[in-house]
Protein: Glucose-6-phosphate 1-dehydrogenase
Organism: Pseudobacter ginsenosidimutans
Amino acid sequence: MQQHKRPPAALLFIFGGSGDLNHRKLSPALFNLFIDNWMPEKFGIVGIGRRPYTTEGYHTHLMDGIRQFSRRKEEQNGKWNDFSQHVSYLQMNAEVEEEYQKIAEIVKQKEAEFGEHPNVIFYMAVAPQLVPDIAQKLGSLNICHDTKCTRIVVEKPFGHDLESAKELNNLLSSLFNEEQIYRIDHYLGKETVQNILALRFANALFEPIWNRNYIDHIQITAAETVGAEGRGDYYERSGALRDMVQNHILQLMCMIAMEAPVSFEANEIRNKKVDVLNAIRRYSNDEVHAHAVRGQYSGGWMKGQQVPGYRQEKSVSPDSPIDTFAAVKFYIDNWRWQDVPFYVRTGKRMHEKSTIINIQFKPAPSYAFPSEAADTWRPNRLTISIQPEMDIRLRFQAKRPGQSMTLNPVDMIFNYKDAYDGDEPEAYETLLLDVMEGNQTLFMRSDQVEAAWKIIMPILETWESRSPVDFPNYAPDSWGPEDAEALIARDGKNWVTLPQPHKD
Ligand SMILES: NC(=O)C1=CN([C@@H]2O[C@H](COP(=O)(O)OP(=O)(O)OC[C@H]3O[C@@H](n4cnc5c(N)ncnc54)[C@H](OP(=O)(O)O)[C@@H]3O)[C@@H](O)[C@H]2O)C=CC1
Ligand SMILES: O=C1O[C@H](COP(=O)(O)O)[C@@H](O)[C@H](O)[C@H]1O
C-alpha cells in the first residue's frame, strides 16, 4: 500500500448527491481516492437531494455509477463495503431554510464521532441558478463564519455572464473568505494539462523558443462526439462558447501562454494566469464577425448510427439559436505573444473526441535543400494531446533513407501509456483531494473568472443580438461549419487534427 500524508478529517456534503455529476464523476473519484489510500482517516460523505433514497438504495445507485464510469470497474475486493460505511444520503429541499438544521446536526454528530472538528466541504453539484440561494442559506449556519475549515466548491458555469459572475463573486465573498471558495474547472485537474507546467517550466529547452520570434501560431481543439446528451435544458442557456471556451479553453491558453511562476504557491500561479487573461484582446462588436464563428449540428449519421440534430434534442427549442460549435481567433497583446494568433475551436458531434494543442513553429530562415526535397517547409510542431490520447509529439524534418535528398517530417513521441502504467487519476480525483488538502492552485480565483467573462462578452452579445440565419450549419461526424475552416484558411493555415505518422 502506498504511504503518503493523507488530508485531515473531512465531512463532505454534496448538494446534487442524487444528480448526474455525482453519479458519473464525484463518487467514482472519491472511491478511487479511497482505494489509493488518499481519503482522510476520518471522513464522511453526505449526498443531498430531494429524491427519496434508503441508505442501501443510495449505495446501489452510486455503485452503479462506479461500475459504468470509474477508471476502475471492479468492486476492489470488498473495498466498496468499507467505503460505503462513510457514505449517507440526506433527503432535503435545499430551498427551504429550516432544512439546513439537519446539516448542522450532522456536523455536530460527526465532530463527536471523529473527536475533532473536520473540514466541512459543501460541493455545489446543482444547477447554477440554485447556488446563490444555497450559499446564502449555508451562510446563516454558524459553521460558515467561525472557521477557515469550511469550504465551498462551486461547479461551472460560474455565472451566466459577466454581471451574474460578479454578483455571485460578491455574494460568496460576503459569506466566505476567498481561501474557502473553490471554483472548479475540471480541465485543470487533468494530468496532461498539469503536465504543461512541467513541460514548460521544468525544462530549459523550450523557453528560448516559446515566443513570437519562433512560434507562428497556436491551435487548441476540444472536439466531442457526443451531442447535448439529455442536457438540453442546461445547454439551451449555455452554448459552446459559454460551456467550453469561457472556462476550459481559456484556461488551456493560460497554461500555454503564462510567464514562468517564481513558485507553485496558489496565488503566484493564479497571478500569472490572470495576466494572460487580462492581455487577451477584447473585440469590439464590429470585430467579432472576423474573429469568431458559431455553428450548430444538424441530424445525420455518426459512425453508422443515425443521430438527431441539436434542435431535435430533448428540451431544445425547434428554432434554437444556440451554438454547439465555436471557433475564435484570439490575440494576446503582450511582449511574448504580440501578433501570434491563437485559434481555438470546440464543438459537439464532431468527427472524433480529441483535445489537442498544437504549437506551430516558424520555418527555418533559409533552405539549402532543393525545393522539391520537401512537401512542407513548416515541419516544426509541438503537439500536446490532452485526451483521449495522452502524449506529446515533437515534429521535425528528417532525411528519408535513400540516395536522394528527400525530407519528411517525423515525430518524437512521449506517450503516457509507454512511460507510466497508464492508470492516471481522473481530474476530479486530483481536484477533490486538493479541496480536502486546502490547495487552491488548480482552482479559479474570482478575478480570473471575471477576466474570462470580459473576453467572451462581446462575442456573446454580438451573437445574441443577431440570430444565426443558417443554423444548423454542420453535419454530425464533421469538423464543424465551413466558416471555421475559412477563419484559419484566410491566414494561410489549416486546422491540425490528431497527428498521423507521416506517410507518402
Ligand atoms: N453532469 C456533468 O457531467 C457535469 C456537470 N457540471 C455541473 O454540475 C452541476 C450539476 O449538474 P448535473 O449533475 O448534471 O445536474 P442534474 O440535473 O443531474 O442534478 C441536479 C441535482 O440537483 C438536485 N436538486 C435540484 N433541486 C434541488 C433542491 N431544491 N433541493 C435539493 N436538491 C436539489 C437534484 O436532486 P433531486 O432531483 O433529487 O432533488 C440533483 O441531485 C451543474 O452546475 C453542471 O453544469 C459540470 C461539469 C460536468
Ligand atoms: O464542462 C464540460 O465539459 C464536458 C467535456 O469534458 P471532457 O473532460 O469530457 O472533455 C462537456 O461535455 C460539457 O458539455 C461541459 O459542460
User: Anything to note?
Assistant: Residues 16-21, 24, 48-51, 93-95, 125-128, 130, 155-157, 234 surround NDP (ligand 1) (CB under 6 Å). The chain has two domains: 10-155, 188-359+438-489. DSSP finds 16 helices and 16 strands in the chain. The chain has a mean pLDDT of 93.
